Amino acid sequence: MTAPVLDPPDFGSSGIVASVDGRVLQLRIARPERRNAFSLGMYRALKRSAVWADREAELDAVCVTGTGEWFGAGGDMGGRTEDAGDLAVEWDAVEQFPFRHLERCSKPWVAKINGLCHAGGIDLVLHCDVTIASDRARFRVPELLRGIPDPFMASRLAAAVGIARARYLFFTAAEFTAAEAEAMGLVGKVVPHDELDAHVEWALTQIGRTGPAARASIKRDMNRRLPAADTALFRDSIQSAEMREGMAAFLEKREPRWPRA
Predict the structure, then answer these.
(1) What pLDDT does 240 receive?
(2) Which residues, in sequence order, are bridge partners of residue 129?
(3) Residue 185 within any structural domain of the chain
């Protein structure tokens, strides 16, 4: 059957480059000058991508990857945004994040992890359905070094790698390799870097051979078994003295002076 010709709409961010290849929405995180850190506009673009893909019956999957040496470095802690008029201040701080929308989308999301993947990059990976990493990829969970209690990471990391490993990764913020990520269950498959494109293409072809309704049902059934993210953790902490100090220390490239009161 011939694939339809689909043109994705403008999702609202130059940092997320979108195209349709056959029956796959291809998304590329394209902000290498900031290590592919997510602006608020990029987060919103990912949400819009999930909503649009869910509505397009002719699409089979969404594939997201990075640019250069980075898959994603997490949220841009410098506060940079492309649309300061309506994104600089969110009425609800947790609503900027796209992760729940990825899970609600009936189409499988495939993470093609081309390079370093830290913080919110790992959040993105944890909320994708199929995860394939280059053997050059590296991973890190540095949130607590910034005083950030990430509820999306807390709810999904333990489910993926087990409580003991999740605690180790959170509390040490140690970087780990793609091979270690595969062994602990964070990613589904690691391949040599030069074979990443071909293997992801193979996986997308395999997904396209499956029944659309059946795979959507299985995605929904597996996701409903996962714990819900306690977004109040982040909402209650975003204006705390500890988080402000953690973010300031990161930007000033110094050790944080944690408030103890």
Answers:
(1) 84
(2) none
(3) yes
